[in-house]
Write a structure and sequence with these properties.
This protein has ten helices and 34 strands. By secondary structure, it is mainly beta. Helix 2 crosses helix 3. The longest helix has 13 residues.
């Protein structure tokens, strides 16, 4: 929740146990990053998808060969598995000595992490290689895989994040055929020059039969059971210098390493043939070997030992409601949380999203002229509305979020499941972004309980080419439509080139609709934003960024039933249960604060091993800001007074 302080006199009670320093270890910054989940918003629109965006592939590594005089040259790509290990191709880190294939000495190798431009190393993490592990059965283009042990741990950031390894993927390569993956690298371009900026491309996996038929001499000889084949044969392929890089596949809300670039064909000039398929080492076949070398599974999606928001905990319950058919297809693949808001004595519709059994998330602008009286959830459920709550700081399209409480609770089913709410740690702005909206079809009428016949409400979902763009790009597009307000950190600007949704649906039908991602593993949707404003002519939509409003949403949606009925055993009124933060997983490693924002003194007695912090200089502080305060305490304990 948002915490409000009186500037004149407020004291914040912080219960800090003896292990404060260990609980706030700076290495815990790594815990804020999950494998396979990118943290960067797109910084520009990319034509044809060739040049990567900054931070788009934070697990991609650059492998340099170091000469005897100390100079280095780019050689291959690699993929970060964890803080200490990089996976690459064996042929990138081996040499021939007396007809034997031997590893290159680690001192002759250097790994760059977080690199985008080969000419620039500012902000790039450089690591020497202490060990080189080549697969024991490696031979030319077979078992072409190696693990490099870095000389020291890397620090995770928005530009350096490990990829996920998943031993649950189906080992049957025939089921992988047709699936699209992404590759990245600084290999030779179509002009046979080394790329200076990181480039990326998508390509589908093709069957062994199709691959061998395309080039029997090459693939018939080198493509074995430990490999798969991928490519477009239209100039979209890997080339010299891309070897060792990964083949990444999106699994819902994360990216998984599925292959390692091994080889491709050559043309008549002996250059790589970008019109030909490429061979990839099948990472799934080597997971056991990788685990033996690294001592772990590499990146996983295990839950991190950090405090989870209330909405994230509730999301786990929703996942239990979702299910799959025998063929692995989600039962609830058609947006089971989408809501159409119905107005009395008025034709027109607004959108919303079910986020609990009692609450709908929508836009405050949906209630500007009149308030909705009912909500249609799914195809058959219509429930009357009890009350509406706009964000207290709503003004025009700023802070344009609202909550609707229903008169009766929703019964969940496969066709009616709430959506999860993205937060600062689960928000994935690079994923496929889904837009939703509603429209009344005046050609067809239907009976709506309590309203009689009304135009039929239809729903449209589109998921192609939705891109989050920068404030500058957004401003360039919206100023032409008369908008002069800047895009704030609590908003997302989405560009939807070629979309019919913005033209076919009026602004009312889009307003309140969700910008969301879909996790095909858990069959659950996560809401990134709620539509506040749209500019049809420019194909631009402004969304309120939900991660920035959780401090307001959570205490309302998941409040105690009667906050004035009783007090907890420690004397803290239940309405302040939300004002509690825990860091660490055990009692000794816990850092907790509780306070009553309406009182001028801390709630409860001051206990032993307690630190009191004077916050009279603060006016407002959020949970995220309070985390920063904890870090400041760790770094400068002289600024606090022990009691």
């Amino acid at each position: 929740p948002q915490l409000h302080f009186n500037r004149d006199s407020v004291m914040l009670l912080v219960l800090l146990f003896l292990s404060l320093t260990s609980a706030l270890d700076p290495t815990s910054n790594n815990a804020l990053y999950q494998c396979g989940v990118r943290r960067r918003i797109g910084v520009q629109l990319i034509e044809r998808g060739w040049v990567a965006e900054l931070g788009q592939w934070p697990w991609h590594a650059a492998l340099f060969h170091v000469s005897s005089n100390g100079s280095s040259s780019y050689a291959c790509g690699g993929t970060l598995l964890d803080q200490r290990h990089v996976l690459t191709s064996a042929h990138c880190v081996t040499t021939k000595r007396r007809k034997n294939i031997v590893p290159i000495r680690g001192s002759r190798l250097m790994i760059h992490l977080g690199q985008y431009d080969l000419r620039e190393i500012t902000g790039v993490q450089l690591r020497n290689v202490s060990e080189v592990h080549i697969h024991e059965e490696y031979s030319t283009n077979r078992n072409d895989i190696a693990v490099l042990v870095l000389s020291s741990d890397v620090e995770y950031s928005d530009f350096v994040i490990p990829i996920c390894l998943d031993n649950r993927v189906d080992p049957d390569l025939t089921k992988l055929v047709g699936q699209r993956g992404s590759v990245a690298g600084w290999g030779l371009t179509e002009n046979q020059t080394v790329a200076q900026l990181l480039r990326t491309a998508q390509m589908p996996v093709v069957s062994h039969v199709e691959c061998v038929q395309a080039d029997p001499t090459l693939f018939g000889r080198y493509l074995d059971r430990g490999m798969f084949c991928a490519g477009e044969r239209n100039g979209t392929s890997v080339c010299n210098g891309d070897s060792g890089g990964g083949f990444y596949i999106s699994e819902g809300d994360r990216w998984v390493l599925r292959g390692v670039v091994s080889f491709s064909g050559v043309d008549e000039t002996r250059q790589c043939d970008t019109a030909q398929y490429a061979g990839f080492a099948n990472v799934h076949n080597y997971l056991g070997w990788i685990k033996d070398v690294t001592g772990s599974r590499g990146g996983t999606d295990d839950k991190l030992d950090i405090p989870r928001r209330r909405s994230e905990i509730e999301c786990e319950k929703y996942k239990e409601l979702a299910g799959k058919r025998g063929n692995g297809i989600c039962l609830n693949s058609r947006q089971p949380h989408n809501v159409a808001l119905i107005y009395e004595n008025s034709w027109g519709v607004c959108s919303g999203a079910l986020i609990s059994d009692e609450f709908i998330l929508t836009a405050c602008s949906c209630m500007k002229r009149m308030k909705p009286v009912s909500a249609r959830i799914g195809q058959f459920v219509t429930i009357k509305i009890a009350k509406t709550l706009c964000h207290p700081q709503h003004e025009d399209f700023v802070n344009d979020v609202a909550l609707i409480k229903l008169k009766s609770k929703v019964e969940f089913a496969a066709s009616v499941i709430p959506a999860c709410l993205a937060n600062d740690w689960t928000e994935n702005l690079y994923d496929t972004l889904l837009l939703t909206g509603f429209k009344e079809d005046y050609r067809v009428y239907e009976d709506v309980p309590g309203f009689g016949k009304r135009p039929k409400i239809t729903e449209l979902v589109e998921s192609v080419d939705n891109l989050i763009i920068t404030e500058a790009e957004c401003r360039n597009r919206t100023e032409a439509m008369g908008r002069t307000d800047r895009i704030t950190d609590s908003q997302l600007c989405v560009y939807s080139p070629g979309h019919e949704i913005l033209h076919a649906y009026d602004s009312n039908g889009l307003a309140g609709g969700a910008l969301q991602t879909y996790n095909s593993r858990t069959c659950i949707y996560s809401i990134l934003g709620i539509c506040a404003d749209s500019y049809t002519a420019q194909s631009v939509t402004i969304y309120s960024r939900i991660a920035r409003f959780l401090d307001w949403i959570e205490p309302i949606v998941w409040a105690v039933d009667d906050p004035t009925e009783s007090e907890d055993e420690d004397g803290t009124p239940p309405e302040y249960e939300g004002n509690e933060l825990s860091l660490g997983s055990s009692t000794e490693d816990t850092c907790t604060y509780k306070f009553d924002p309406n009182q001028l003194t801390p709630t409860g007695p001051i206990r032993k091993n307690t630190v009191v912090v004077d916050t009279s200089e603060f006016k407002d502080i959020s949970i995220a800001e309070f985390r920063k305060l904890f870090e400041e305490l760790r770094l400068n304990l002289s600024a606090v007074k022990s009691v």
